[in-house]
Every structure is written in C-alpha cells, then in structure tokens.
Amino acid sequence: MSTPSDVATAEECAVRVVDPEKVALVRAALPDGDTIGELAQVFGLLSDPGRLRVITALLEGGEMCVCDIAASCGHTESAVSHTLRLLRASRVVQVRRAGRRAYYRLDDSHVRMLLDLALAHVGEDGS
C-alpha cells in the first residue's frame, strides 16, 4: 500500500514527465475519443450478467432463435428480445430471418475472441 509520500500530487504529475519519448508514443497510439466511446459502450454491454448470459449462450450454441436463447438462459422471451435489440444496435449480434422466426448469432469472430479471452482470464487461478 502506498503512503502519501509515495504518491505524486496532481500538480507534480502535471509539470513533470519522466520519459517524454514513451509518453509521445503512447499518445500517438491511443485511439481517438469516438473509438474510446464505442469501446466503452461494448464493454458496458458486456458488464451486465443477463446480457452476458445471452452472449455466452450464442457463443456455445451458435445461431439460435429467441425462444431457444430464453430457454437456455432461464430468461423470458421478452427480456431476451430486449437484450438482443441492444446487442444488435451495437453490432455484437446479427440476425437472420427465416419466415416469421429470427435467428441470432454473434456478429463476428472478434466478439467470439473477446469472449473466449475473457472466459480464459476468469478461469485462471491467479498464480
């Protein structure tokens, strides 16, 4: 745990840069504000346990209809439909219509990789 003498005050940090080259490289590599906003929105969507349950069902089951997702997750079809609308608007899932039925799947391999990495991280024992 740090003590007050170990922590630089905001004023000290504002006027001092230890490694200006590294700071310049990092600033150049940081995404723009719009990209950061979109990224925060995606992680916000993934922060809800109900939405994660739906996303994980699609990760495991592939393409599924609303009623099958609801049955898999233990949610109502109405709740799943609402969740899928949010996920579709943020390009996390895609929909395919077959007659009156809609089938949902994860949007692309990036979403799948993100979830696989997060699941692997959570599954680590920490040692």
The H-and-E topology, N to C, reads as: HHHHEHHEEH
**Main β-sheet description:** 3 strands, antiparallel
Radius of gyration from the CA trace?
21 Å
Q: What is the molecular shape? A: elongated
Structural class: mainly alpha
Strand segment count:
3
**Stretches with pLDDT under 50, minimum 5 residues:** none
Question: What does the average pLDDT come to?
Answer: 87
Strand order of the largest sheet: 1-3-2
Calculate the terminal CA-CA distance, rounded to whole Å. Answer: 20 Å
Portion in strands: 5-15%
Helix content percent band: 55-70%
Number of helices: 7
Tell me what the structure shows.
Helices cover 62% and strands 11% of the residues. By secondary structure, it is mainly alpha-helical. A hairpin with a 2-residue loop joins β2 (93-98) and β3. The chain has helices spanning 10-15, 20-29, 33-46, 49-61, 66-73, 77-89, 109-123; strands spanning 64-65, 93-98, 101-106. The radius of gyration is 21 Å and the shape is elongated.
